[in-house]
Design goal:
The chain is an alpha+beta fold. It has two domains: 30 residues, no CATH class; 137 residues, Lipocalin. The chain is 17% helix and 33% strand. It has an eight-stranded antiparallel beta barrel with strand order 1-2-3-4-5-6-7-8. Strand 1 and strand 2 form a beta hairpin. The longest helix has 15 residues. It starts with a helix and ends with a helix.
Amino acid sequence: MSRSCRFRRVGRWTRLAAFAALASTTGLVALTAPAAAAATTPEGIWYTDEHDSIIKVHPCADGNDKFCGSIVWLKDPTESDGSPKVDKLNPDASKRGNPMVGSEILVGMIEDGDHWKGHAYNPEDGKLYDITFKVKTGKELNDTADLRGCVLRFLCKTSTFTRAGEVPGGEPTLASTGMKKKNKKSAHQ
């Protein structure tokens, strides 16, 4: 009998049994496969990659398990004339006078595997971009996150955010004006 004939006579059940034995010893059995890791929540306050602004990521107002993010601090919150920086490139003309501090720039982030996906508004060009936001785990102890923004799904840029312990200057509204908390009463009189 030729060598090729010897192996042709192996029955279907023998092949299935051999595959089952191989699968169970190599971890290929579906029941023991680890589940996909859930995304670490993006909630918190984050310095942008240049440390020139802080974004507060919070549950969106619609309450649908989505996260949004607003600017709560700018390193340079005012124009050269002392007026607050505004969203002058917003495509919605009615929003062009809105202060940058308080502007929502991360929109509708939903969990997608080990990261969050949604949209980011870039006030530097007035455009909305598709993004992913992934909190790094492990050595970094959830203190950094990568925000990846893309145009046409192939022109992408990644920025690394760093968790902020607090907003410089205290409350976001005070930080935007450069006022200290103790002067709050006099500013409203």
